[in-house]
Design brief:
The complex is a heterodimer. By secondary structure, chain A is α/β, with parallel strands linked by helices. Chain A contains 16 helices and 19 strands. Chain A has a five-stranded parallel sheet. Chain A has a five-stranded parallel sheet with strand order 17-16-15-18-19. The longest helix of chain A is centred in the first third of the chain and has 17 residues, at 79-95. Chain A is globular and about 55 Å long. In chain B, the strands form two sheets. A four-stranded antiparallel sheet of chain B has the order 1-6-7-8. A four-stranded parallel sheet of chain B has the order 2-3-4-5. Chain B has helices at 21-24, 44-47, 85-93, 105-112, 123-133, 164-172, 176-181, 184-197; strands spanning 6-9, 11-14, 70-73, 97-100, 117-120, 141-144, 149-151, 157-159. The radius of gyration of chain B is 20 Å and the shape is globular. Chain B has eight helices and eight strands. Helix content of chain B is 31%, strand content 14%. The longest helix of chain B is centred in the last third of the chain and has 14 residues, at 184-197. Classes of the chains: A alpha/beta, B alpha/beta. Chains A and B meet through helix 2, helix 3, strand 5, helix 5 and helix 10 of A and helix 4, helix 7 and helix 8 of B.
Chain lengths: 468, 207
């Protein structure tokens, strides 16, 4: 009998074109997602070498990182951003790559629209010049971020040179408590294993609490795998997955869909499959989480306090903690719930889906954004925006004093005009709290959409369970 | 890509762990359509104050480290984004080799594509090299990729491990794409098999 294999092993094995003598594999790529920031130099490389795009029908381009999220009928004001967008438009025209333009209703963050349009499917290998490509692993795909040289490599060959990663299982047992979400699960995992805890591994998330998540929640968890250092995150496809995929514009139709499902059912890890590392977590013990430092691993329950570096035995870590507290302007022992915020950002590839906006609107309904707080809601895609508007969520949010904006990456990384000013403190549903991530000198606290909405209406990092 | 064989150079000490890609090159500098010219923004927030003036206490603003071609750092160097602008900025500044206890995967990969050699060495060795680097121009390090050794100023040789395929590509300055395209018949064969075995896979067209 064949050796039991993991979900990752199966997807990997079925995409190996050729194994080179030293173990490096030529890995076939089913879907290549591209955007304006990490592709210009790759297309330029193709042009200089006289190469073509091998599989335009397996490639899609969209603009997301640079685009303004306010009125865009007048185009992009900022010249460098405009040049990147125009360069992508020239490149897709020259190389025949399918493209979703800025003013198309389907435009949005690449990691939101891939699953939303049925471009990303279970069992696929999916890459993009962006580390949060791990998001698509929620479908049971092997999805990971690549650099621009690799973008060029995929454009030219539809393959990548890769060595297999190690398998890591993160099993989340039990059920989530009231007010707790997928974001809290993944922040708790990163807090446990650290930002390098998954280096060299692909994480498979399993267990009762993961099974119970909807696709949006699964995407949030897989999205932040990279924040734990993992190359990718994956969740075995099940009925939740199939129901999500069925009927999406680029998903297989009718008989082809049934064939696909039959194949997808073979993907979950075999009983007895071996993992190089296993971590377990009790979902019932997870509280709403919030980060206090400038690394996603610097996270505590919202009911907690800012940790004291003097209690850290390792000197290098102690120094890093001091530096983080200095940057974040926090003091050891301070209650997280006493920390005031200036800005609230709800959106990003981590938490820009309709379910996230519903969660925020539930808290916002009938309340007002606290005086002096600026709160932005940036839907992950034009379709998410449309759906929210059909549900009346935009009115709930704007009546509460939130800004309702156009789709894009926005304040997650501040490449467009949405950024923090030095010293501003932000409760953010995004994925990275690195120094200056949301704007030079900006201070980021990562949390769930409901927690972000709670921060907006109270003006501080609040425990959403007291508002719900 | 420039080949990497042997490098004898000044090494800059950067005694920080978790140096993320936003520290190496903040997102606001990613709005370029070129690979070059990013060196001036390398470590921007560590290197310059709010007015844009150099911070004199930052290592790369000091002599002789302005000419450093080797960087010594601590754990999890390059974590975060997949932006290849990070190795491009290092390379444009002149850095050809980074030595640290470990690296984030994507950054590690991106280095090789640009002729930068990332070397993993244990923490205590990095600390010793950090001490060497603090001696500045008086203490050059030699990195010999052929022999897979780092030579300390005192002559001590430290062996490092590297993937043989990547070593070969670096030593020869080879382009990955050209290598892979030699296997085009295998890729054609794979695609033909997939078309019959996974006939349900849709094409993206008519967007």
């Amino acid at each position: 009998m064949a050796e039991p294999r993991t979900l990752f092993d199966k997807v990997w094995d079925s995409h190996v074109v050729e194994r080179l003598p030293d173990g490096t594999c030529i890995l076939y790529i089913d879907r290549h997602l591209t955007h304006e920031v990490t592709s210009p130099q790759a297309f330029e490389g193709l042009r200089m070498a006289g190469r073509r795009v091998r599989r335009p029908d397996a490639t899609i381009a969209v603009v997301d990182h640079n685009v303004p999220t306010s009125d865009r009928s007048k185009g992009i004001e900022e010249p460098e951003s405009r040049l990147q967008v125009e360069t992508l438009e020239r490149n897709v025209a020259e190389f025949g790559v399918p493209y979703i333009p800025l003013l198309d209703a389907r435009q949005g963050i690449v990691h939101i629209i891939g699953p939303e349009l049925g471009i990303s499917l279970p069992g696929f290998t999916i890459v993009c010049g962006d580390s949060h490509t791990s998001t698509h692993g929620a479908l049971g795909a092997l999805a990971f971020g690549i650099g621009t040289s690799e973008v060029e490599h995929v454009l030219a060959t539809q393959t990548l040179l890769q060595k297999p990663a190690k398998n890591m299982l993160v099993r989340v047992d039990g059920t989530l408590g009231f007010g707790c979400t997928a974001k809290d699960i993944v922040l708790a995992i990163i807090g446990r294993i650290g930002t390098a805890g998954g280096t060299g591994h692909v994480i498979e998330y399993a267990g009762e609490a993961i099974r119970a998540l909807d696709m949006a929640g699964r995407m949030t968890v897989c999205n932040m795998s990279i924040e734990a250092g993992a190359r990718a995150g994956m969740i075995a496809p099940d009925e939740t997955t199939f129901d999500y995929v069925r009927g999406r514009p680029y998903a297989p139709k009718a008989g082809a869909f049934e064939q696909a499902v039959a194949y997808w059912r073979t993907l979950p890890s075999d009983p007895g499959a071996r993992y190089d590392r296993t971590v377990t977590l009790d979902a019932g013990a997870v509280a709403p989480m919030v980060t206090w430092g400038t690394s996603p691993e610097a996270v505590v329950p919202v009911t907690g306090t800012v940790p004291d570096p003097e209690g850290e035995p390792d000197e290098a870590r102690r120094a890093q903690m001091r530096r983080m507290l200095d940057y974040m302007a926090l003091t050891p022992g301070q209650r997280m719930q006493d920390v005031p915020v200036d800005v609230v950002f709800i959106g990003s590839c981590t938490n820009g889906r309709i379910e996230d906006i519903r969660a925020a609107a539930t808290i916002a309904r009938g309340r007002k954004v606290a005086p002096g707080v600026r709160a932005l809601v940036v839907p992950g895609s034009g379709l998410v925006k449309q759906q929210a508007e059909e549900e009346g969520l935009d009115r709930v949010l704007t009546e509460a004093g939130f800004e309702w904006r156009e789709a894009g990456c926005s304040m997650c990384l501040g490449m467009n005009p949405d950024k923090l000013t030095p010293g501003q403190r932000c409760a953010s549903t995004s994925n990275r709290n690195f120094e200056g991530r949301q704007g030079p000198g900006g201070r980021t606290h990562l949390l769930s959409p409901a927690m972000a909405a709670a921060a907006a209406v109270t003006g501080r990092l609040a425990d959403v369970r007291e508002l719900a | 890509m420039d080949r990497f064989t042997t490098l004898t150079a000044i090494a800059a000490p950067l005694p920080l762990a978790n140096v993320d890609t936003d520290k190496i090159i903040p997102a606001r500098f990613l709005k370029t359509i070129k690979r070059t010219g990013l060196g001036v923004h390398l470590f921007d927030t560590l290197r310059y104050d709010e007015s844009g003036a150099e911070r004199p206490d930052f290592v790369l603003n000091q002599e002789p480290y302005r000419r450093a071609q080797i960087l010594i750092a601590f754990e999890n160097f390059g974590c975060g984004s997949s932006r290849e602008h990070a190795p491009w900025a290092l390379l444009d500044f002149g850095i050809r080799c980074v030595i640290a206890p470990d690296f984030a995967d994507i950054f590690h990969n991106n280095c090789f594509k640009n002729g930068i050699l990332p070397i993993r060495l244990p923490r205590e060795v990095c600390e010793a090299l950090m001490a060497d680097a603090r001696m500045g121009g008086n203490a050059r390090l030699t990195v010999d990729l052929q022999r897979q050794v780092v030579v300390r100023p005192n002559g001590e040789e430290i062996r490092f491990e590297i993937d043989p395929f990547r070593r070969h590509l670096l030593l020869e300055g080879l382009d990955d794409i050209g290598q892979t395209l030699q296997h085009a018949p295998a890729i054609d064969g794979y695609e033909a098999r997939q078309r019959s075995e996974r006939a349900w896979v849709p094409a993206i067209g008519g967007v």
